[in-house]
Amino acid sequence: MSFLIHEVVYFGRCLPFMIMDKIPYFRQYKIQEQKMPTLAEQWACARLVLLSHFTVELPQIWLFHPMAQYFGLSTSVPFPHWYTMAWQIALFFVLEDAWHYWFHRALHTPRLYKMIHKLHHQYSAPFGLAAEYASPLETMILAFGTVGIPIVFCAFTKNLHVITMYTWIVGRLFQAIDAHSGYEFPWSLHHFLPFWAGADHHDVHHEKFLGNYASSFRWWDAVMNTEAGSASGAAKRAKAAAVKEE
Ligand SMILES: [Zn+2]
Ligand SMILES: [Zn+2]
């Protein structure tokens, strides 16, 4: 059931972007306009993603249920209050983002990059399907932020419902696919929530290979001075260099 939800959400969410690729009107919102993914590229990507879903993610999802129940995940009525769901999901977004920032940054050290992370960077102009295009080891390391953190939370608090867990995972999947979509719209969320990362944040990461390591928010890269591409990041680094020279 969990596996099925994941597949439907993943490919379902990618579909609108694949359709947009075929409609010239949407070209104006494409971040790296000159690089359109070809159908062959998308198909090759989908094949590897599917393979990884069945060989890496399916066994993990299988293990997830008994493990979560062991740690006290609630699967029965009453359903949690919307307020409880909201603060728990917000907390997971913040914690996952921190996990992602540090492990993703570590994956960019030369050895780990070559061994593990290079595959994910095959597409310098990402598209939705590329979100989970990664080596099995990377999938396991980064997925811990999405799945492991709530389990640890549940082990300590004994206060987590499976509905909250599903909603969180769907939200996180949407976030990851949108970040890789290659499209930036005037109505994109980060125009209203300036600390939300959005597509343009992660797109630059794929284009430049350096900086912008966080997943959902902009604060870690801002505080740790690892922003890529943006004028503010460049200005900050120039200022830091000037201070060093003095
Ligand atoms: Zn990377
Ligand atoms: Zn990526």
Report the bound ligands by name, code or SMILES: zinc ion
By DSSP (H or I, 4+ residues per run), the number of helices equals 9
What percent of residues are in strands?
Answer: under 5%
Shape label:
globular
- Could you state the order of secondary-structure elements as H and E? HHHHHHHHH
Average pLDDT across residues? 89
Task: Report the helical percentage.
Answer: 55-70%
Characterize the biggest β-sheet. Answer: none
Number of domains: 1
What structural category do the secondary elements indicate?
Answer: mainly alpha
What's the number of extended β-strand segments? 0
Unreliable stretches covering 5 or more consecutive residues: none
Structural Rg? 19 Å
Through-space gap between termini: 61 Å
Pfam family, one: FA_hydroxylase
Keywords: Membrane, Transmembrane, Transmembrane helix
Protein name: C-4 methylsterol oxidase
Organism: Capronia epimyces CBS 606.96
Please give a structural write-up.
The structure is a single chain. By secondary structure, this protein is mainly alpha-helical. It has one domain (2-245). 63% of the residues lie in helices and 0% in strands. It has 9 helices and no strands. Helix 1 runs parallel beside helix 6, helix 3 (82-107) crosses helix 6 (162-180) and helix 6 packs across helix 7 (198-208). The relative contact order is 0.14. The mean pLDDT is 89. Residues 104, 108, 117, 121, 205 line the site of one zinc ion (ZN).
Topology:
Layout: H1 2-21, H2 39-70, H3 82-107, H4 110-115, H5 136-157, H6 162-180, H7 198-208, H8 219-223, H9 231-245
Bound molecules: zinc ion (2 copies).
